[in-house]
Specification:
Length: 170
């Protein structure tokens, strides 16, 4: 493990108040695509993927909430900023040990004023009832222009959907 990254067992859930738009962001497979070689997997931030994330944030005014396993590391946001991510970070989803969709829903349920619009950018599809909000990336390639365009469109045309067994989003 990189010495810069220190595990956190009790991190903050949110700094959010009166949010308009949020990107629930996975890091590995989105900003850090997997590159397979004979010696295994080489992983590093891909500048093209970072540029696409920055474009989403710039075009929609969205803030980032980490839903990635990176949320377990103390200095995750600082590392991402050092690697070129130009966004305001507003929190981290809790880790419930279930599906990532449950973690995101718990974060949404745990704040007084949930965001009016949100999108999930992830290379996994374990979003349960939130799968309609997912922009799924290919973990080998990371976030593409087409997927960034999809996230932008979803945030710009967002209409809160009634979630099964949940209160409608405000």
């Amino acid at each position: 493990m990189n010495s810069i990254i220190k595990p956190v067992y009790e991190g903050r859930w949110t700094d959010a108040e009166n949010l308009d738009a949020v990107v629930f962001l996975d890091v590995d497979g989105v900003l850090i695509p997997g590159m397979f070689s004979g010696s295994g997997v080489r992983r590093q931030f891909d500048i093209f993927c970072v540029i696409q994330m920055n474009r989403i944030v710039q075009m929609t005014g969205a803030k980032i909430c980490l839903s990635s396993t990176w949320r377990l590391f103390e200095h995750a946001e600082e590392i991402m900023i050092e690697r070129g991510v130009m966004a305001e970070f507003v929190g981290r989803t809790p880790y419930l040990g279930e599906h990532r969709g449950a973690d995101i829903q718990r974060w949404l349920d745990g704040i007084a004023n949930p965001p009016k619009r949100f999108v999930i950018v992830d290379d996994d599809s374990d979003m349960d009832h939130l799968s309609g909000y997912l922009v799924k990336t290919d973990s080998r390639l990371g976030l593409s222009k087409k997927q960034a365009d999809q996230a932008i469109l979803q945030l710009q045309t967002f209409a809160a959907r009634r979630l099964p067994g949940r209160q409608p989003l405000r």
